[in-house]
Automatic annotation (TrEMBL):
Protein name: LLM class flavin-dependent oxidoreductase
Superkingdom to which the source organism belongs: Bacteria
Originating species: Brevibacillus fluminis
A GO term from the CC aspect: cytosol
Keywords tagged on the record: Monooxygenase, Oxidoreductase
Length: 365
């Protein structure tokens, strides 16, 4: 299994220390987290997209470009790009530029988004979200795959003989479809024969499994081989400790604080407590052994090749602790038990320097 670390850059007061990071501190925290993920052998780092408090993730291409400048190997994900409200021309230009600056390490996950506040900001209604997403994605595909595009639709001015610049470095840039709540997203992914990424965050396994099963069924309908389906999946909150009891005790303040936010309430999670979420939901809270068992159980249901985790909300010291523990105690077992061919041919255009001498030479260029 391949493993991604991601952040939605939610900046709220720490429920344990009371500290609130400045915007500058939080953005720097994300950059440091991405560098640490690469050092620890994670396969990818993702940045989400939100447009409102308490999130600072309104500009993923900017943040991912900063991360690209500080890393050499790790894949860069958008988790997700809210294409339902964005101009496909702007998306094509921004992310093709990022693709070049990262040496071809970009993977775009598209979706309609998980926060209804962005619809009035960008001039569409919530009822239009799926139609808007499908139209904008069809145009984005053309802009990246064709030159001299002439197009007319509902959600942006018409185009006449347009070739966006720069052209993507990767041919094509890999695209995933974010899947959280509706068969509209799995239908779109199946139509194009492209991977899906299940959010698997707020609800019991059965809800997300039904969407993944629908995706595989519709792949067959559109003439694609469901045996070749590529699925990624998120996870609930991560907190590892030597025992389940210790993990629950240390994580409970974070869980309670997050559940009190407007973002959490919008998702209407059915779990009545942290213990209920651990027992019946996706939360990865407990000993390394119990977390491994849970991930294996979810893999049996989903068949996913990529797992994404997040340590948002914790102190910086706890973030490092959790990421390091996952990398040393959990990830090796997942890679051994659940082999994955995703990203086996990741670009190596920017190989890291092999010696201090090389670093000194490069720093003078």
């Amino acid at each position: 299994m391949k493993i991604a670390l991601f952040s939605l850059i939610m900046n709220v007061p720490n429920p344990v220390t009371g500290e609130t990071l400045t915007t500058q501190q939080k953005l720097q925290n994300v950059l440091k987290q991405a560098v640490l993920a690469e050092e620890l052998g994670f396969d990818a780092y993702g940045v989400g997209e939100r447009h409102g408090e308490p999130f600072l993730s309104s500009a993923p291409p900017v943040l991912l470009t900063a991360i690209a400048s500080k890393t050499k190997r790790i894949r860069l994900l958008t988790t997700v790009t809210v294409l339902s409200v964005l101009d496909p021309v702007r998306v094509a230009e921004d992310y093709a530029t990022l693709d070049h600056l990262s040496g071809g390490r970009l993977e775009v996950i598209i979706g309609k988004g998980n926060d209804p506040r962005h619809y009035p900001l960008f001039g569409i209604t919530e009822e239009e979200q799926w139609e808007s997403l499908a139209e904008r994605y069809a145009l984005l595909k053309r802009l990246w795959g064709e030159e001299n595009v002439t197009w007319e639709g509902r959600y942006r001015p018409k185009l006449d003989n347009v070739t966006t610049q720069p052209r993507p470095l990767q041919q094509p840039i890999p695209i995933w479809h974010g899947s959280a709540s509706s068969t509209h997203s799995t239908e779109l992914a199946a139509k194009y024969g492209e991977p899906i990424f299940s959010s698997n965050t707020f609800h019991p396994m059965a809800k997300y499994k039904a969407l993944i099963d629908h995706y595989r069924e519709r792949l067959t309908y559109y003439g694609h081989d469901p045996q070749k389906a590529i699925v990624g999946a998120g996870a609930g909150s991560l907190f590892l400790a030597n025992t389940r009891e210790e993990a629950i005790k240390r994580f409970r303040p974070y869980y309670d604080a997050h559940n009190a936010t407007a973002a959490a309430k919008h998702n209407q999670s059915p779990f009545t407590s942290l213990e209920d979420n651990i027992q019946n939901g996706p939360a990865l809270v407990g000993s390394a052994e119990s977390v491994i068992e849970k991930i294996l159980r979810y893999h049996e249901a989903f068949g996913h090749q990529v797992l994404s985790i997040s340590v948002d909300g914790l102190t910086e010291a706890e973030q490092r602790e959790q990421v390091e523990r996952f990398a040393s105690e959990v990830a090796p077992v997942l890679r051994r038990e659940l082999p994955s061919t995703v990203w086996e041919k990741a670009p190596t255009l920017f190989d890291p320097p092999s010696s201090d001498k090389e670093i000194a030479v490069q720093n003078t260029l």
